[in-house]
Amino acid sequence: MSKKLFIETLGCAMNTRDTEHMIAELSEKEGYEVTGDLTDADLILINTCSVREKPVSKLFSELGIFNKKKKPDAKIGVCGCTASHLGEEIIKRAPYVSFVLGARNVSKISEVLHKDKAVEIDINYDESEFAFKDFRSSKYKAYINISIGCDKSCTFCIVPKTRGDEISIPDSLILNEVRKSVDAGAKEIFLLGQNVNNYGRRFSGEHEKVNFTELLRRISKVGGVERIRFTSPHPFHMDDEFIEEFAANPKICKSMHMPLQSGSTKVLKEMKRGYSKEWFLNRAKKLRSVCPEVSISTDIIVAFPGESDEDFEDTLDVLKEVKFEQLFSFKYSPRPQTEAEHFSDIVDEETASERLTRLQSLHTQMLDEGNAKLLGNVYRVYFEDLFQDNFVAGRSDNNIMVKVKGSDELLGEFRDVKITSIGRTVLTGEVVV
Ligand code: SAH
Ligand code: F3S
User: Fold this and answer.
1) 65 phi and psi, to 5 degrees?
2) Distance 360 CA to ligand 2 centre (A)
3) Could you tell me the distance, in angstroms and rounded to a whole number, from the CA of residue 10 to the centre of ligand 1?
4) Which domain holds residue 420?
5) Which end of the chain is more exposed for a tag (fewer CB within 10 A), N or C?
């Protein structure tokens, strides 16, 4: 009988891809099979996130629960970004943890499995770590890493410490993965990196200069690729060439993530984001003018140290002007080993909560007004998920989530769908073609 693996994935899409790779390694080399039942597992993995403090504290309470529920001889391993930044401390605080495996070391999963109390958190640049296994959790969409790590030094962010310096993966390897994914049935390619449009700055060896725009062109020419998405681009690297290719290339989905973080030029400087409020507005304006159908999502941090009422008003200003279709917003959370950890002029908790609520309410109000206009529109939807009650869900090119009545026959298919009812996160429609 095969051994059972229970794996929980927290955080970003890169963690999702790391999880796929670990599942494949454990299945091929160790004969594991995934289970959703923790109590039946022989190995329990938590693939962690450390961008904010909440998920880190949640990790320790969750570890305690997992330890009580698990089979007596089952092993628990902690992987991902929190593993990278806490290392050995995890085993000190939770001695029943068998091993700790950093975000940059996931290829070593089958090695650490056999070493009791192993802590593998080195950040090395061995090219073999680029070669991820082909296994994917979705048949319809393929997540593909194009770079690992991040070279920026945003003062609030722990990622450069946990995932290391930025290294681009040679385009020949990426194109190979794209071809294999398409052959396996995926029509959508989802490119991943912390800073995708900085692609091509540094490779681990000698390599032809290929920037992100050129990489997109090359991928879009691979037969069978119908849609390309990517996350996250950085507003600083959104030059005209990139925005124009984005607008003109029919394979690139018209959905752009533009992580603003703050609308105040003063705060952006403190964050070391490399752009001003005006730069950001100019890029968003350019994008909307060359690509009117684009939907723009963003990340915003409220209550960064030193953020005054006026600074926060600047953020609301940008929200009103850009009218983001999607917002991910967070209260600033001080992180170890970051510059901002030592900043004074902390914004009190009450003000932080109030700002977050104001920001989110304004956005919800704008969203409701915008969504009401979508009724009756027709979108080309690519179906990927089976919902309850015979609903099938998919996304439009510009990332609107739509569900229709239907069966799994629609999965992996494109259909034109007319919107018949509006919800806040999912719209309902009916297939017209
Ligand atoms: N490379 C990505 C960022 C990864 S972290 C990008 O540039 O978009 C994802 C998001 O978490 C960030 O965009 C930011 O909004 C948020 N975040 C990161 N560090 C944070 C912190 N210390 N406190 C609160 N939110 C944070
Ligand atoms: Fe973090 Fe800034 Fe890089 S948010 S991941 S340091 S671009």
Assistant:
1) -65, -45
2) 23
3) 14
4) 378-431
5) N
